Amino acid sequence: MARLFFTFFLLASSPVVLAQARIDSLLPTRGFCIAAPKPHQLDTFLKFINEELAPRQVNTLILRIDFNYQFDSHPELRDSASLSKRDVKKLVKVCQKNRILLIPQINLLGHQSWASTTHNLLRIYPQFDETPHVKMPEKYSWPNPDGLYCKSYCPLHPDVHQVVFALVDEICDVFEAEAFHAGMDEVFYIGDDKCPRCSGRDKSELFAGEVAEIRHHLAQKNRKLWIWGDRLIDGKTTGIGMWEGSFNNTHRAIDLIPKDVTICDWHYERPDQTAVYFAMKGLNVITCPWRKPGFAVTQTQDMVKFRQSATPVMKERFQGMMQTVWSGAGAFLDEFYGVKVNPEAGENTQANCFRALYGEIKRLTDEN
């Protein structure tokens, strides 16, 4: 018994174990979010996980899948070039080896179109469209008379969840996922006056209802829900605006959604400290930078200060940091490895932001 205790003591006091404990205490979640690679990019992406994410002690990887998978439940919704089950298992294996939590994302509710393109769900099932009277333009511009940014599906359509939950279940199963990211950012179309089901309903209740519907479905298999946080911020009162906050009153949903939903709080043009707001509402929150290295450093310092100065109850809600990437995986890897560099971008690139974020995490870990 004494020998066993001594062995445990040696292991627990080793430099590697102590360093891991320090960084886990500093920032429990250290994330990276990017579009899933296409099949021909997979090997390079696996190399990136092994050689760049793991050494920086990234422990959470969100892959935006959408329709980039060879779904069996709804093969009609597959992208033309999409990941196979074998491809996904390679991702699962490398993440498990590096102790990285792998979370798939499919955009639910909003982001069912982009520019002049209708995405697969509404293209195949146009009856799910919240605003069928808004026609997709040949040439997209913003602003426009229809207020079209991205299409949404109608959360009250009687058949929509049967389809989208089949996708969610299948992708979570193949990824062996403990959590699922539903997107739900930048939802401009919700509770439209011309929708026969949603017209006249409170937009915050509609949004909260959809969050709860997804959360409850995931809970049946002990999975957790993650979403972006912008629709839960009052864009008018805060001055944060219509992109990083809500102008259509969905922000009131923050008091209606389940408290075990994790919020990914993104701010790209200012390092706003709204993580405090989410934590005070009882929600776990992760701060997410994008392409400005200076802001990423400030946001990381803020998150550490929040954890250090908060009450024990509040501290655990400040979960950490996550780099977000909004180009395709191939474009980011080209930028990161110097294959294609945009000289006009200067220092404000996704790759530089990623390096700065994790450089600051290392610096703060070494100090503590």
Automatic annotation (TrEMBL):
Its EC number is 3.2.1.52. It catalyses: Hydrolysis of terminal non-reducing N-acetyl-D-hexosamine residues in N-acetyl-beta-D-hexosaminides. Residues 78-304 form the Glycoside hydrolase family 20 catalytic domain. GO terms for biological process: carbohydrate metabolic process; glycosaminoglycan metabolic process. GO terms for cellular component: membrane. Residues 1-19 form the signal peptide. One of its GO terms (molecular function) is beta-N-acetylhexosaminidase activity. SUPFAM superfamilies: (Trans)glycosidases (SSF51445). Pfam families: Glyco_hydro_20 (PF00728). The keyword Hydrolase applies. Keywords: Hydrolase, Signal. Belongs to the glycosyl hydrolase 20 family. This is beta-N-acetylhexosaminidase. It comes from Spirosoma terrae. The lineage of its organism: Bacteria, Pseudomonadati, Bacteroidota, Cytophagia, Cytophagales.
